[in-house]
Each structure stands twice: as structure tokens, then as C-alpha cells.
Design brief:
Blueprint lengths: L1 H22 L6 H12 L15 H23 L5 H11 L1 H18 L3 H10 L21 H16 L1 H10 L10 H35 L7 H18 L4 H23 L19 H25 L7 H22 L7 H9 L5 H12 L4 H38 L1
Helix pairs in contact: 1-12, 2-12, 2-16, 3-7, 3-11, 3-12, 3-15, 4-5, 4-7, 5-6, 5-13, 6-8, 6-15, 6-16, 7-11, 7-14, 9-10, 9-11, 10-11, 10-12, 13-14, 13-16, 14-16, 15-16
Length: about 425
């Protein structure tokens, strides 16, 4: 599998390098192009890249894990806004209460539409609960410090819920008998929910602050950061490894490290200019970026990960069972479950009606769901449950990429036009 995958990824990257100006003119997201190329090269087309998710689960899990880690750090670094209840209220609600409602409604849909038993229905809903902060490029933040209500909410939510989905996945695996929940679920509550989430966020935040302090001391000594790529991969590897060592959620730790690094750099830039403390309405100085090369490098890594994984998803679509019920489930999860969960958990006092509707629609599923799917299969889930769950998950990811990729450009152009007026 790896040989044709390397050749395919290399060819697509070269073609995109020469034709990116043409792709940008298309009324759809680049992810749709990658998905289509993967389908044409896979068993649906030339059969050069035969992907079977359950057979290649270990390789897919590793690739998706790396892609998610790079994405989360890049997103956290690029957010670069101060933490305050007003700014973060919407993404925190979406990543916590919204995640729970999405998982519950998704479980009901999986049971009623697909006929899955309740444990498998919960696993499918948990796998598809996290949103992707990258695939819908039109709706993510455009530059560091972007505070537009829609783009900031969706990007920050995607960074947070790639980690907060873990407790639901672990609960489903425990219900299936392949993970220890403890008497009355005490272990799941104490370890999988409270400790793993809290410790992951705290560890990542303090590691990010420590790294920002080290970079600031380097600058004060009259030197500058020379190897941004070392810092990016070094922080990701260090924080992720430490998080796994203390049984915390590494995804949350890496996202928090990126967010802390960007936040501390923003505050340091204001102090260096003699500005006041950064508040919700503070305007960002021109030189507040930690390093334009650092941010650019992390963004490029993010795009490389997107290309590599979406190609694999496209190739794996031939394996899925494209039944009417599976497509109906994907449509229900994309067009009904997500909007209901957002409207039920995000009150209008936190975000205006127009932006709230856009946030309710743009719940794109992507690489995070692929990782959780492969992770669950690696925990010895019964094949009778794994196959229908994997098939429905891949179909839902594909439907989400298509629906959101086609609608993102016109909807965001309309939103921005109204916002400017």
C-alpha cells in the first residue's frame, strides 16, 4: 500500500504546486479535489491504491494520528487570541455540551436508521462527533488572530473536540467489553473523562508557556529562532509523549501547547511595544506573530497532512457499503444532528442569528474521525460491529466533505458581504 501511496501523494503535491491558482478559482474546497483523485486512483477507478480500512487499520491510524497532531498544533498556534469567557464561550460549548448532544443524537440515528446495536451505534456516533478544523478552508481562520465569530468558533471547536471525543469513544469501547469502565463507570469518569481531559489541557498549556519563555529569552540574548521546523515537531513530540506518559489526552495537550505558545507571544509583543494588557477588543500589532516562518511552516505541514489523508479516504470509499440507509444516515448526521446540537447548546446571546446558522451547518467530518475509527478497530472490536461502523463512517466523511466543500464558498461570500455592510 505504501509504495503507490507515496507516488500518488508526490504526484498530487507537484500538480497542486503548479495549478493551485486554478483550484482556488473553483467553487469548491481543495479537499473535494483530493477526495476525487483518491477515488479515481483507488478501486473505484484505476485500482492503483487499494485501501481496505480494517486490513490497513494500523497504518491508517498512525498516519491519521500524525496528521491530527500537526493540524492541532498549527491551529492552536494560529488562533493567537487571549483566553476570555466571551471569546471562547461558543467553541467551549460546542466541544463539551455540543459534543455530548451530537453523540447522543448520532447514536439514536445510527440505531434507528442503520439498525446497529446500541454499543455499536454509540461507537459510530463518537467516531463521527469531532469536526475537522482544516478541510473546509473557507470557514477556518484566515490569518493569526482572526476573531470573526464563524471562523474562530469553527476552528477552535475543531481543535478542542478532536480531543474531547475520546471519552465518548472510550465509553463505547467499554460498553462493548474491550475497555475497563469500573464499577458504575467510576474509572471512566475519574480517569477517561476528568483526569485525561484536565491533565491534557494543563500539561499542554504549561509546556506551551515554557516554550514561549525559552524563545523570549533567546531573543533577549540577541539571537533569533533559526530552525522553526525543529520547534514545531519538537514541541508536538515532547508534549504528546508526556501526555501519553501520564494517561492524558495527547490531542488536547498538543492543541493547548500551540494555543499557549501563540497567546504568550501575542502578549509579549504588546508588552514589547509598551501596550496595555491584551483584552477582548485589543487590536493586534503588526509584529505580534511568534515567527511568520514558524506559522507558515506549520500551515504547510497542515496542508500536506490534509492531502495525504483525504487521498486515502477517497481510495477507501470503494470498500464501503453504499446502501440507501448508509447514505440516509450520513445525510441525517450532516444536515439534522449537527444543526440541532448547535442550536440546542449555543444560545443567541452568545452569537448572532446569521453566524449561528453557519456554525450549525459547517460541522465537517474528516481526519479525526478516521483516526478514531482505526483506533477503535485496534482495540479488538468485533468484526460484526467494526465493518458496518467503518462503512457508515467513511460514507459520512465523504458526504460531509462534498456537502460542506461545495457550500462553503458561496455561503461564506454571502456572509462576508453582509458582515462588511
Amino acid at each position: 500500500m505504501l509504495v503507490p501511496w507515496f507516488v500518488l501523494v508526490g504526484a498530487v503535491l507537484i500538480v497542486m504546486a503548479f495549478s493551485s491558482h486554478l483550484v482556488q478559482r473553483l467553487p469548491l474546497s481543495p479537499a473535494i479535489v483530493y477526495l476525487g483523485v483518491g477515488a479515481l486512483i483507488g478501486p473505484l477507478g484505476a485500482e492503483l491504491l487499494p485501501i481496505k480500512p480494517l486490513r490497513h487499520a494500523e497504518t491508517l491510524e498512525l498516519l491519521a494520528e500524525i496528521a491530527v497532531l500537526i493540524t492541532l498544533f498549527a491551529v492552536g498556534l494560529r488562533l493567537r487570541v487571549p483566553f476570555s469567557p466571551r471569546l471562547w464561550a461558543v467553541p467551549i460549548r460546542l466541544a463539551t455540551l455540543g459534543m455530548a448532544v451530537t453523540t447522543g443524537l448520532g447514536m439514536l440515528a445510527a440505531h434507528w436508521v442503520l439498525g446497529l446495536p446500541w454499543p455499536a451505534a454509540l461507537l459510530l456516533a463518537a467516531v463521527l462527533a469531532p469536526t475537522d478544523p482544516v478541510l473546509a478552508s473557507e470557514v477556518q481562520i484566515r490569518q493569526p488572530g482572526d476573531r470573526d465569530a464563524v471562523r474562530f468558533s469553527l476552528t477552535a471547536e475543531g481543535g478542542l473536540n478532536d480531543g474531547t471525543a475520546f471519552p465518548a469513544v472510550m465509553l463505547a469501547l467499554g460498553w462493548m467489553g474491550v475497555h475497563e469502565l469500573g464499577a458504575f463507570g467510576w474509572r471512566w469518569i475519574a480517569v477517561d473523562l476528568l483526569w485525561a481531559v484536565g491533565a491534557g489541557l494543563a500539561l499542554g498549556w504549561w509546556c506551551g508557556k515554557a516554550m514561549a519563555w525559552a524563545v523570549a529569552r533567546l531573543r533577549e540574548s540577541g539571537h533569533r529562532l533559526e530552525h522553526e521546523e525543529f520547534l514545531v515537531f519538537g514541541v508536538i513530540a515532547l508534549v504528546y509523549g508526556m501526555a501519553l506518559g501520564i494517561r492524558a489526552y495527547g490531542f488536547l495537550a498538543v492543541f493547548a501547547a500551540g494555543a499557549a505558545l501563540g497567546h504568550c507571544e501575542l502578549c509579549g509583543a504588546f508588552r514589547a511595544q509598551g501596550g496595555e494588557a491584551v483584552g477582548d477588543d485589543a487590536s493586534e500589532p503588526r509584529d505580534a506573530a511568534h515567527s511568520s516562518r514558524l506559522i507558515q511552516f506549520s500551515v504547510q505541514c497542515e496542508h500536506l497532512a490534509e492531502v495525504a489523508l483525504v487521498l486515502l479516504i477517497g481510495s477507501a470509499l470503494a470498500w464501503a457499503d453504499w446502501s440507501a440507509r448508509a447514505v440516509l444516515f450520513a445525510a441525517v448526521l450532516t444536515g439534522v444532528v449537527r444543526p440541532l446540537a448547535v442550536l440546542a447548546t449555543v444560545p443567541r446571546r452568545l452569537i448572532e442569528r446569521g453566524p449561528r446558522r453557519l456554525v450549525a451547518w459547517f460541522g465537517i467530518r474528516g481526519v479525526g474521525s478516521l483516526y478514531y475509527l482505526c483506533y477503535a478497530y485496534g482495540e479488538d472490536v468485533a468484526r460484526s460491529h467494526a465493518e458496518p461502523v467503518a462503512s457508515a463512517a467513511l460514507i459520512t466523511i465523504a458526504v460531509s466533505i462534498l456537502a460542506h466543500g461545495i457550500s462553503s464558498t458561496p455561503l461564506m461570500e454571502r456572509y462576508m458581504a453582509r458582515h462588511e455592510r
